[in-house]
């Protein structure tokens, strides 16, 4: 009997805007996270993909391990890099981090 009395004393229902307002900070945090972390990462991935697709024989590159060399051959996912006269290594394309300007290795 007491429970039914409690329900009978409940105030009349009105417009409840608290539900939407409680989600607003969560939505704002996600938007900030997207613009600070996710979007720049996607931009870097797109730039790296474009760099690897534009890779050509004769380009001077830096590998993930910091090795400098000149691209001597290209296949689908394998790049052959000449690191010194007569010394070549085969790497996956993903191991190339930077394409250097032409002539960088001669001055180094």
Automatic annotation (TrEMBL):
Signal peptide residue numbers: none
Chief place where the protein resides: membrane
Keyword Cytoplasm among UniProt keywords: no
Pfam families: YajC
Keywords, in A-Z order: Cell membrane, Membrane, Protein transport, Translocation, Transmembrane, Transmembrane helix, Transport
Membrane spanning residue stretches: 20-38
Taxonomy, superkingdom: Bacteria
This protein's GO CC annotations: plasma membrane
InterPro entries xrefs: Preprotein_translocase_YajC (IPR003849)
Coiled coil: none
GO BP terms in the entry: protein transport
Subcellular location, record wording: Cell membrane
Membrane topology term: Single-pass membrane protein
SMART domains recorded: YajC (SM01323)
Family affiliation: Belongs to the YajC family.
NCBIfam families: yajC (TIGR00739)
Name assigned to this protein: Sec translocon accessory complex subunit YajC
């Amino acid at each position: 009997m007491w429970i039914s009395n409690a329900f009978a004393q409940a105030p009349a229902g009105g417009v409840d805007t608290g539900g939407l307002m409680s989600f607003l900070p969560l939505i704002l945090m996600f938007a900030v996270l997207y613009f600070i972390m996710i979007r720049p990462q996607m931009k870097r991935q797109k730039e790296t993909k474009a760099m690897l697709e534009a890779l050509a024989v004769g380009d001077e590159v830096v590998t993930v391990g910091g090795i400098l060399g000149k691209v001597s051959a290209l296949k689908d996912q394998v790049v052959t890099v000449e690191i010194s006269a007569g010394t070549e290594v085969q790497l996956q394309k993903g191991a190339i981090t930077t394409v250097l300007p032409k002539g960088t290795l001669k001055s180094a």
